Amino acid sequence: NLILPNLKRTPVHDFIVQQGGKMVPFAGWSMPVHFANTGVLAEHLHTRDSASLFDVSHMQQLKILGKDRVKFLEMLTVADIEEMHFGTATLSLLTNEKGGIVDDTIISKHADHIHIVTNAACAEKVLKHIRNQMYKLQSRGWFLNLEVIKDYALLAFQGPKTAEILRKLGDKDLRDFRFMTTRYVNIKKIELHMTRGGYTGEDGFE
């Protein structure tokens, strides 16, 4: 395994190393590329046939708060935030003042805040862009606040058996947990902000 002393580590980094994860540099983070006792192909097939858990905690998680958060995000993205129901999510794009793409993002709408996830490689650029736009509007009297989420890991559970396994862990009926819906749940007394997305092409929960 590589010694990567200058890279950031996710909350589950040490556990992954203990399980034989082969760590490589990615966007300033020490991230697993595969496990020593399986390999990329076997892990790929396992995700397609069963379920696999991915550490994606290097991605940036943000909360937008304040009563003007919806119209603020409608200025920054191509999503129709106003028409989204509470408890739903959408894939969208963050854009600059000229309509160029800053990054792609997942946006989850809740009653008291909007949760967004952006890519690790664009984290600093995205954060600077959002803050700059927010400061301009706050100076005009808009009610907005930004919270960078640092105390939550981000895990992606992917594969056709994910819902079955989660039902056993949480003893919950997930039939009403539709694609691109989001909610706060407790599994084994751990509070989770969960979205049903499936970025691998299989069913999945992040």
Automatic annotation (TrEMBL):
Q: What is its EC number?
A: 2.1.2.10
Entry's Gene Ontology cellular component terms: mitochondrion
Q: Does the keyword S-adenosyl-L-methionine apply?
A: no
Q: Which GO terms describe its molecular function?
A: aminomethyltransferase activity; transaminase activity
In terms of Pfam families, this protein maps to: GCV_T
The record's catalysed reaction(s) read: N(6)-[(R)-S(8)-aminomethyldihydrolipoyl]-L-lysyl-[protein] + (6S)-5,6,7,8-tetrahydrofolate = N(6)-[(R)-dihydrolipoyl]-L-lysyl-[protein] + (6R)-5,10-methylene-5,6,7,8-tetrahydrofolate + NH4(+)
- Per UniProt, the enzyme's principal EC class comes to transferase
Give the signal peptide as a residue range, or say none if absent.
Answer: none
| Keyword annotations from UniProtKB, A to Z | Aminotransferase, Transferase
Query: Which residues does the UniProt record annotate as the domain GCVT N-terminal?
Result: 12-206
Family as reported in the entry's similarity comment = Belongs to the GcvT family.
Report the protein name in the record. Answer: aminomethyltransferase
- Organism (species): Dentiscutata erythropus
